[in-house]
Amino acid sequence: MTDQPVLDVRGLVVRRDDLVAVRGVDIQVRAGQRVGLVGESGAGKSLTALAVMGLLQLGWTTEGQVLHDGVDLTRISDRAFSSRRGRTLSMIFQDPLSALNPTQRVGAQITGVVRRHTEASRDDARAQALELFTQMHLPRPEQMLRAYPHELSGGQRQRVMIAMAMACYPQLIIADEPTTALDVTVQKQVLRLLDAAVQDRGSALLLITHDLSVIAAMCDHVLVMYGGRVVEEGPVREVLRSPRHPYTKGLLESQPTLDNIELEGTARLPSIRGNVPSLHDMPTGCAFRTRCDRATAQCEVVPVLEGDASRAACWHPEPALSQAGRS
Amino acid sequence: MSTAADGMITAGELAGRGPDPAGARRGRRRGQVNTGLVVGLVMTVTFLAIAALSLVWTPADPNAVAPADRLLPFGSPGHLIGTDALGRDIASALMIGARTSIVVAAGAALLGLVLGTVAGLTAASARPFVDETVMRGADILLSIPGVVFALVLAATVGAGVGSTVFALSVFFTPSFTRVVRAAALRVLGEDYVAAAQLYGRNRLFILARHVLPNIFSVLIVQFTLYFAVGILTEAGLSYLGVGVNRPDISWGMLLKEAQETVGVASPLAIWPGLAIVFAVLGLNLLGDGLRDVLDPRLRKRAS
Lengths: 327, 303
Prior knowledge:
The complex is a heterodimer.
Chain A (H helix, E strand, L loop, with lengths): L6 E10 L2 E11 L4 E5 L6 H9 L7 E8 L2 E2 L5 H7 L4 E4 L13 H12 L4 H14 L5 H5 L8 H13 L5 E5 L7 H18 L2 E6 L2 H7 L2 E6 L2 E7 H6 L4 H8 L4 H5 L48 E2 L15
Parallel strand pairs in A: 3-8, 3-9, 6-7, 7-8
Antiparallel strand pairs in A: 1-2, 1-4, 4-5, 9-10, 10-11
Chain B lengths: L1 H16 L3 H11 L3 H22 L33 H36 L2 H15 L3 H11 L4 H28 L2 H8 L4 H38 L10 H9 L7 H28 L1 H7 L1
């Protein structure tokens, strides 16, 4: 693998007037790497993704750099950007219901994407779409191509979306909560297909989710976002096994598992006290300090990411797991 | 005897099917049998058919004066609905009037629809400055009373079908612009538009392929409703004498002529009045029915 990352986000700030939703985020994704971006609603995950793709709604502005292929995407023209989007960069949306045009057959939508970015003829594009649908294990792909989105189930629609995102062998796929809108049973199936598709194409994946179990299954690297900042980052094993930031720890503890349901009977699921602060009254310093048990006066100053194996932005982090415990 | 037996069987079948309210209810919900829509459709088709028929055939020449036959009552031989003060055939005039209503009202609604769609889509998809300019322009146009504008136009350019269509479309365009913009903004917020941008589609493509098909139902509904408004407004203008005049014929103009014989032959005013009610009611029922069936937001709310 080359040293140059396929995506290098540096100091990304996304704001709307004086509302700052993303406050200086750094993300690096190397070729073929799978990076998870996890956090609660309102942590700035989706805005980060939209900013990277240049799809922010009117009124939002960005600062910082988004380097892809050595080009700063925040600086190139729309025309230059749109030739990259969909071809080398691609995105899977959260809600498959609203991500497909209800008035067009799905086949027309996918061949449209293929033809937009390649020289493929109509028949070639159709053959490619058929191939993609087959890879996505869509039943009766021939008929599927002629179906309208409302004739498909949620899982099928999301598979169509993945097929569309994969159509041009992108270097990087951003998946924004790809399974949140799906049934649990379908989630697993869709994740497995996404996994296989990314594997086949050697694409890098930036997976945005609030579900740590999805991150555990899909990613090798994870970034935990809170209040518009990355509060912890590192290899998935390190971070999930020995979280250092109290927020990450709280997130992990509030995951329901069979253990804490069955063994403790009526015990309540632990939760992080309080709510995510709104953008209007984000605390100064560490954004988590109002909900944190360890907060001290020191936390009024923004901590920086520090650490070796995994890095946490906290003045009072959990001690890192002993060297012996690491493989 | 056999006819009676047939009748018995039919009645029995009906009775057998009758006490199945669950099935009936299910049918109504699934099939969405919309009485208003069906009635509106039948009335509108009748109206259009009569107008179409007038192109090839009318009972008599509606402009042929026959003093001897003047003020014939309803049901007179040769003049089904009678004649007016100059002996002109009313049935024929009503048929031609239907045609005029369509040309003027549908023409103005269509013109307003096209202009309003272009303006509305532009406003919805352009920068805030352009959006504001277009929408405030629409506000200004809306603040001009349509009838007054038509009066001024008739006084300066002259009355007639052309200037009536123009006045009505100026009146309709801003309303269409608002509706189209609102509907387009909703579609532009959908993920498939973001996805289309993502895949490098330009604005025109997105508007044509994604936005327009998805607001089509809104356009159809608005068109039928403004068609009805157009008929009413045209009738009003012609009644004031600034719309259509002989040898062209419109229902409003017939009302104006009938006014002169109120008291002598009052029914003369009823026929064009009934024609207007029939056409407008049919179009409104059709428009409301179409909205219920086509608008996905209303459908969602209902279920």
